[in-house]
């Protein structure tokens, strides 16, 4: 049976199994979902065993548990003779998801998958339960049809959305268990439904929380306003200084290790189909912003950034309360590019914020998590196999493109295991990951299964 017929014959079962994962609210950043993390890991163990892994287990860590599964091709395979040189593939994914809030913005229950207009809507529909299912179902087909001649390992974690704090120690402890020739990841996106692409680079990340403390209690703004430094005012004044009027980050030595873009890189980006007006319309903004001297596709993939991810303090309830708050907070992040060390940048940012803190308040900057950027060579045999997979599934060869997101553990995998990662993702901008009404295009999802199937056929040939 070919892969398209296999998908058609098993489509409802595929959806049901996908839904069984989504219904588990595995939100890693919320302690009340601790039990759900284990439930989701255990469900993945069941599904990977059913897909054909001879071994699958939940493995403990310092945080949420890991899922490890393994398939070793049998000498009784319908393939002629087991080639001892076939590659070992390590498939990485994550089973944790972002919170669904604000719930009122969802058109349907985020924990109950709903299909409408050719899409499956739910939290985790794409990131990363939907994309992980693409890997699992391509693997299942190849095993059931006797076509899998690779040694395949799966490692799924439950902390990716909080920076993978337990992963590095787990990799170090289990280097032999995770040894492989390359890593395969579906947790990235394509340029468009009709423009398939392979991710060749990811940005790194730094993330901090800032706490500004002023008086020892909230004060009456009439009695104390104008006489005592307001922590929220102080916080916004500091944050406003981080980016200058040319879109450049003002932290001293921030750009020291940034490698300038080459003409070849900029030419490659210029070939990517991009409609600026459609881009602005899709996110309902009247203009774009960014570093002078760069176009939008360069700014959101190849250049570093600074963003305020959250800010709060004082009174935010209904009505008014004339208060000068005691504290103010912000969560902020930087996306980094190749050669920038996230630990160096993190310390530089902490030092900078402390240096511009005004008198009258006390400022604490707490680093939360971070990771390095990643670049994938496009001449690797595994990359070429992925290209072939996309070409067959989507009817056109994929564009090589850097993406603006971060998966910090990809650099950790390379440093500890000494192997490269192939970023074979099938997300779309319209999927709205991390946002209300996250979804997965079902046509792309099925083509993803075909692409991964063809990838394995080419890598083991």
Which class do the helix and strand fractions yield?
Answer: alpha+beta
Radius of gyration: 24 Å
Gap between N and C termini: 19 Å
- E-strand count: 18
Strand residue percentage? 15-25%
* Strands in their spatial order, largest beta sheet: 1-2-6-3-7-17
Estimate the mean pLDDT confidence. Answer: 95
Put simply, the count of helices is 14
Task: Catalogue the unreliable spans.
Answer: 75-83
Gist?
This protein is of the alpha+beta class and 461 residues long. It has 14 helices and 18 strands.
Keywords:
461 residues; 14 helices; six-stranded mixed sheet; alpha+beta; 34% helix; four-stranded antiparallel sheet
SSE arrangement:
Layout: H1 3-22, H2 34-51, E1 55-59, E2 66-71, E3 88-94, E4 114-116, E5 119-121, H3 129-144, E6 151-157, H4 167-173, H5 175-178, E7 182-185, E8 197-202, E9 204-213, E10 219-220, H6 221-224, H7 231-240, H8 263-270, H9 276-283, H10 296-299, E11 305-313, E12 323-324, E13 327-336, H11 342-356, E14 362-371, E15 374-375, H12 381-394, E16 399-402, H13 409-417, E17 421-423, E18 439-441, H14 442-459
Parallel strand pairs: 3-6, 3-7, 7-17, 8-16
Antiparallel strand pairs: 1-2, 2-6, 4-5, 5-18, 8-15, 9-13, 9-14, 10-12, 11-13
């Amino acid at each position: 049976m070919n892969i398209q017929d296999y998908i058609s014959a098993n489509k409802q079962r595929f959806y049901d199994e996908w839904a069984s994962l989504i219904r588990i609210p595995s939100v890693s950043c919320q302690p009340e979902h601790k039990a759900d993390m284990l439930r989701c890991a255990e469900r993945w163990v069941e599904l990977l065993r059913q897909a054909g892994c001879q071994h699958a287990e939940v493995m403990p860590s310092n945080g949420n548990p890991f899922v490890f599964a393994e398939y070793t091709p049998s000498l009784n395979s319908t393939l002629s003779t087991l080639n001892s040189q076939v590659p070992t593939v390590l498939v990485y994914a994550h089973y944790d998801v972002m919170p669904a809030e604000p719930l009122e913005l969802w058109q349907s229950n985020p924990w109950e998958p709903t299909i409408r207009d050719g899409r499956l809507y739910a939290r985790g529909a794409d990131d990363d339960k939907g994309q992980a299912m693409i890997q699992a179902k391509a693997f299942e087909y190849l095993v059931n049809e006797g076509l899998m001649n690779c040694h395949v390992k799966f490692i799924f974690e439950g902390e990716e959305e909080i920076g993978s704090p337990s992963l590095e120690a787990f990799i170090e402890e289990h280097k032999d268990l995770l040894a492989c020739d390359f890593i395969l990841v579906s947790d990235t996106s394509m340029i468009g439904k009709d423009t398939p692409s392979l991710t060749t680079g990811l940005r790194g990340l730094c993330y901090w929380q800032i706490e500004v403390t002023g008086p020892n209690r909230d004060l009456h703004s009439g009695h104390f306003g104008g006489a005592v430094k307001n922590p929220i005012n102080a916080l916004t004044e500091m944050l406003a200084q981080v980016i200058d009027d040319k879109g450049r980050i003002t932290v001293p030595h921030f750009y020291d290790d940034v490698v300038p873009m080459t003409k070849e890189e900029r030419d490659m980006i210029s070939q990517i189909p991009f409609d600026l007006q459609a881009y602005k319309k899709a996110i309902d903004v009247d203009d774009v912003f960014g570093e002078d001297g760069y176009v939008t596709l360069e700014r959101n993939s190849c250049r570093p950034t600074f963003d305020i991810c959250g800010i709060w303090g004082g009174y935010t309830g209904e009505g008014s309360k004339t208060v000068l708050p005691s504290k103010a907070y912000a969560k902020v992040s930087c996306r980094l590019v190749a050669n920038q060390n996230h630990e160096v940048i993190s310390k530089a940012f902490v030092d900078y914020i402390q240096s511009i803190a005004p008198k009258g308040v006390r400022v604490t900057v707490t680093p939360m998590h971070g990771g390095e950027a990643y670049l994938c060579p496009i001449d690797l045999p595994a990359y070429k196999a992925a290209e072939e997979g996309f070409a067959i599934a989507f009817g056109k060869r994929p564009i090589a493109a850097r993406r603006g997101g971060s998966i910090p553990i990809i650099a950790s995998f390379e440093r500890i295991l000494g192997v490269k990662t192939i970023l074979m993702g099938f997300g779309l901008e319209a999927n709205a990951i991390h946002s209300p009404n996250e979804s997965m295009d079902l046509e792309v999802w099925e083509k993803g299964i075909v692409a991964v199937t063809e990838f394995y056929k080419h890598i083991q040939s």
